[in-house]
Amino acid sequence: MTQGSSKAHKKSKPYIIGVDLGGTKTLTVVATTQGEILLRKKEETPASQGPEVVLAQIQEDIRQVIQLQGIHFEEIQAVGMCAAGFYNHREKVMVKSPNLAGWTHIPLPGILEERIGLPVFVENDANAAAYGEFRLGGGRGKSHVVYITVSTGIGGGIIADGEIFHGSQGYAGEIGHFSLDLNGPQCKCGNRGCLEAISSGTAIARQAAEMLAAGRSSRMPEVAAMDGRRDVTARHVFTAAELGDEAAAEIVDRAIKYLGAGLAGMATLLNTEIFVIGGGVSMSGNSFFQPLQKAFFSRAAGPITENVEIVPAVLGDEAGIVGAVLLAAEEYALGEGGLTE
Ligand SMILES: [Zn+2]
């Protein structure tokens, strides 16, 4: 029985704690090492109170999910965390986070490991989401995957040969700040004509507001009013376009054409197999994906891009946390014996 209990010991860390640290909400989960989420807990992120308060909250959330799931601390292999921001993956430092006040040069995994007593793996949220979709979502079975989220902003992550492509510091994949229009609208990054400033949900809503302010006749305000809103959002623009509204169709057409051109550029550079598109704007289904494919192939360069697929993401808001859990499970996998048995 001694051997049996030794095997049991090797397999006795079946859980990963996942943390998705966002600017407004923090999601903490208990998951298996295979990426299956067993328990979820969502809390407001006390972002305005600075890193110390946020870190204390993360520590407390982890304690609570362990208790709620009724598991032992000793059964946890590691913590996998994702967060928005410039995470330098070589130095393991959160250099800057746009949504978290005061987060500059914070050695995030080091601090948490010391406080929690577990190994902690951190990854940028878009990279983690790319990994989640690659392993268990829309990019499953492929090796060269680009994940793009089109919501209020546009973010992305690159999987090359089955691994996250980090670039020199960990910041690769920022497709939202591809500058595609030299004289285009101002982007919040300081540049002009970035994809994010043309095709994101925020940009689509801004263009609708500009058209309406210029006196363009459109059903967009009517669609927004039916939704109980005074301001027109990207979703209203898509709905109005589907109803045959010309002004809305123009905005959608432009947003999708630029996105298609951006994807074509990426595919030419990376020889991508598949683009997995997530985020609120991509929820518009065929009225988004069909013209996007058309725009992509009209811009794509010959054999490099011939067989590229463009598909919707399947893991939704949880792509990042699933990716973070899987990355932590792989980084801190138990010894060979434990894995093969
Ligand atoms: Zn930009």
SS-based class: alpha/beta
Number of strands: 13
Which CATH class of the largest domain applies here? Alpha Beta
Q: Approximately what portion of the residues adopt beta-strand conformation?
A: 15-25%
Shape: globular
What's the domain count? 2
**Amino- and carboxy-terminal Cα gap:** 16 Å
**Number of alpha- plus pi-helical segments:** 12
* Sequence of secondary-structure elements: HEEEHEEEEHEHEEEHHHHHEHEHH
What is the CATH topology of the largest domain? Nucleotidyltransferase, domain 5
Strand arrangement within the widest β-sheet reads: 3-2-1-4-8
What compounds sit in this structure?
zinc ion
Q: Looking at this structure, what is the CATH superfamily of the largest domain?
A: ATPase, nucleotide binding domain
The radius of gyration over CA amounts to 22 Å
Name of the CATH architecture of the largest domain = 2-Layer Sandwich
Helix proportion range:
40-55%
**Biggest sheet overview:** 5 strands, mixed
Spans of at least 5 consecutive residues whose pLDDT stays below 50 are: 1-9, 336-341
Mean pLDDT: 92
Short description:
This protein has 12 helices and 13 strands.
Descriptive keywords:
single chain, 341 residues, alpha/beta, Nucleotidyltransferase, domain 5, 2 domains, five-stranded mixed β-sheet, 12 helices, 13 strands, 41% helix, 21% strand, disordered C terminus, binds zinc ion
